[in-house]
């Protein structure tokens, strides 16, 4: 079962959606802009090398909130973001 993520900020509880990303590995050039832009720090540069000699980004842990900051920051449109809708 997929559930929302709760974030407590100064006594206020914000419920955030969950999401997942799909990296188009052949387009990723390992610039790291998406890794820096991710507010929940679930992205990293992988050890795998693509056919262009770059190490594509990967989502290495759960916690994606589907905010699309990674996709927006990607100069090569190599990231697709999907929100997970419950119910």
TrEMBL record:
<feature type="domain" description="4Fe-4S ferredoxin-type">
    <location>
        <begin position="19"/>
        <end position="48"/>
    </location>
</feature>
<dbReference type="InterPro" id="IPR017900">
    <property type="entry name" value="4Fe4S_Fe_S_CS"/>
</dbReference>
<dbReference type="Pfam" id="PF12838">
    <property type="entry name" value="Fer4_7"/>
</dbReference>
<dbReference type="GO" id="GO:0016491">
    <property type="term" value="F:oxidoreductase activity"/>
</dbReference>
<dbReference type="InterPro" id="IPR017896">
    <property type="entry name" value="4Fe4S_Fe-S-bd"/>
</dbReference>
<feature type="domain" description="4Fe-4S ferredoxin-type">
    <location>
        <begin position="55"/>
        <end position="84"/>
    </location>
</feature>
<protein>
    <submittedName>
        <fullName>NAD(P)H-quinone oxidoreductase subunit I, chloroplastic</fullName>
        <ecNumber>1.6.5.11</ecNumber>
    </submittedName>
</protein>
<keyword id="KW-0560">Oxidoreductase</keyword>
């Amino acid at each position: 079962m997929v559930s929302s993520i709760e974030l407590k900020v100064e006594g206020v509880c914000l419920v955030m959606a969950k999401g997942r990303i799909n990296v188009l590995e052949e387009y990723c050039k390992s610039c790291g802009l998406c890794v820096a832009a991710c507010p929940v720090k679930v992205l990293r540069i992988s050890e795998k090398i693509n056919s262009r000699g770059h190490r594509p980004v990967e989502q290495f842990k759960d916690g994606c909130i589907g905010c699309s900051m990674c996709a927006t920051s990607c100069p090569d449109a190599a990231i697709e973001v999907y929100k997970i809708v419950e119910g």
